[in-house]
What we know:
By secondary structure, the protein is an all-alpha fold. 89% of the residues lie in helices and 0% in strands. It is built from 2 helices and no strands. Helix 1 packs antiparallel against helix 2.
Amino acid sequence: MSRDLRKYAQDTSIQLGVGAFLLLFIVGDGLIYLIYGKGAAMMGLLCLLAGVAPVVVIAVFMILLNWIVKRANRD
């Protein structure tokens, strides 16, 4: 039985990234809500989304580039 360590590393990286975002949004914004209230939590959520937007745009761009390259190298 062989192991695909690259696939395992990729899956682990994705899980860590998703976990970090969930921790940031749920715990971070939840603490803002508990300490400062609903208005501050909404502003915190808006700021978190504005900060994550460039990361998401770059990730989508890289995935798109990867898809294009794989499609072009089929021959």
